[in-house]
UniProtKB/TrEMBL annotation:
Keywords: Heme, Iron, Metal-binding, Monooxygenase, Oxidoreductase. This is Cytochrome P450. Signal peptide: none annotated. It comes from Muricoccus roseus. Pfam families: p450 (PF00067).
């Protein structure tokens, strides 16, 4: 599709070699170092100490100031990339996915094939036509509350109670304690009660995700992948009532869907959501006015939808996106107002740049859940779940589970961060906040 303001016959602006190296060193390498598919806690802690994410945002801002709204071509040998620099262009690229901007980029296929080779994210258009509707049907994509919301809430309450009792016993809630309870909840929701204590199935996907961090540099461990899918399938075959596994059994699948092959992405996404939920608990612990509003909503609305708590999670994801780089790839030549985007060019949307752009957003470095309660923040380039036809189909179920867990914990104890330096209402919030380092004291119930 040619843009009506086409720059036909011209090439898009190009970064210099020095500028390209600057993007690779200050933006791409820190993202890869922290672990794209499985976070490396020591590297995340180092990135926080060295403020690497702040420097990355400043690098992209300097390019925007120097070159305008772009897109800006980074002349990487054998595989050029176009760096998106305008919120309007973010919307354009995401709205025109998967054609002519494919979500199944070369990089994604190389990495995700380690643990989800048939996932909708890396499917070609033919397979996507079967797999995307299937994901939406099982996950109730359009609905704020999943059809099994009442059952899932009971699961969340069980695990929150056990988590709180453990925190009371040990005197604090840390990341390992939270993660254990979160994964028990996640396995029950996705795979059923019989998977609650099956750490092995999530350990296997973690090993495969660790390989995926290296993408094409790491050969696929097909035997390990086969063991993971065999164990996953054992749980899905039970199709326990009250789980996504039961819905999988009951949902017709078109040829080529590979229902089993869609599940690893859901488990992967719930891992990222765990970190966002833990960070949100920390921010509510340091922002008393927002915490009071959340507590009032919990009393007034549960077990219904919790829009303010969802907004709290969304703004945590704005501040610290779990997918900092959104990738697309041009499937054909496309005319833009400033020139031609060549077929095969990779497209980089560096979400932290748009989420923390202080030239446009007065709330760039503060906690502002109200951002998500009116209008369409996506039009400002705020895309924690991507946007357009390839927007994450699990957005609503993710926000539902996260807000349910926060509500369950806040109702039981006023959890306060042990070290709250830098995340107070008056602070300029850091560009990196490691969930792995957070600890909480459980107050009186």
């Amino acid at each position: 599709m040619a843009d009506p303001r086409s720059g036909r016959g011209r090439s898009l602006p190009r970064a210099s070699l020095a500028e390209t190296m600057g993007v690779l060193s200050s933006v791409v390498l820190p993202v890869l170092g922290k672990g794209v598919l499985l976070r490396r806690p020591p590297v995340v802690a180092m990135a926080q100490r060295m403020e690497l994410d702040r420097r990355a945002v400043e690098t992209v801002r300097a390019l925007r100031d120097r070159h305008g709204d772009g897109p800006l071509v980074l002349p990487v040998p054998f595989h050029p990339y176009a760096l998106i620099l305008s919120p309007a262009h973010v919307s354009r690229v995401l709205e025109l996915s998967p054609e002519p901007y494919a979500a199944a980029s070369d990089e994604k296929r190389s990495a995700l094939s380690h643990f989800e080779p048939h996932a909708v994210l890396i499917s070609d258009n033919a397979a996507r036509q079967a797999r995307r509707p299937y994901n939406e049907a099982v996950l109730d994509t359009p609905c704020p509350m999943h059809r099994l919301a009442a059952r899932f809430r009971a699961v969340v309450e069980d695990e929150a109670q056990e988590m709180t009792e453990a925190a009371d016993h040990f005197g604090e809630l840390d990341w390992p304690g939270f993660a254990r309870a979160w994964w028990r909840m996640a396995r029950r929701v996705v795979l059923g009660e019989g998977a609650r204590d099956d750490d092995r199935v999530t350990d296997l996907i973690a090993k495969l995700r660790a390989d995926a961090n290296w993408a094409f540099l790491m050969p696929r461990r097909r035997r390990l992948q086969a063991r993971f899918f065999e164990r996953l399938d054992e749980h899905l075959q039970r199709a326990e009532p009250g789980s996504l596994a039961a819905i999988i059994r009951a949902t017709p699948a078109a040829p080529g869907t590979d229902a089993l092959g869609q599940v690893p992405q859901w488990l992967f996404a719930l891992d990222a959501l765990a970190r966002a939920t833990f960070r949100t608990l920390a921010l509510l612990g340091t922002h008393p006015a927002l915490r009071s509003r959340a507590e009032a909503e919990i009393q007034a609305r549960e077990p219904q939808d919790l829009p303010f708590l969802r907004a709290c999670v969304l703004d945590t994801l704005r501040l610290w996106p779990t997918t900092p780089v959104i990738l697309r790839q041009a499937t054909r030549d496309v005319e833009w107002e400033h020139g031609l985007l060549r077929r095969g060019t990779g497209i980089i949307i560096f979400a932290p740049f748009f989420h923390r752009d202080e030239t446009r957003l007065p709330q760039a470095h503060r906690y502002a859940p109200e951002t998500w309660l009116e209008g369409r923040p996506e039009d400002q380039g705020l895309v924690p779940f991507s946007d357009g036809p390839a927007r994450c189909p699990g957005r609503n179920i993710s926000l539902m589970l996260s807000s349910m867990m926060l509500a369950a914990l806040l109702r039981r104890r006023p959890f306060s961060p042990v070290d709250a330096d830098g995340i107070q209402p008056e602070d300029r919030l850091p560009a990196t906040l490691s969930a792995f380092e957070l600890r909480f004291r459980p107050g009186p119930g």
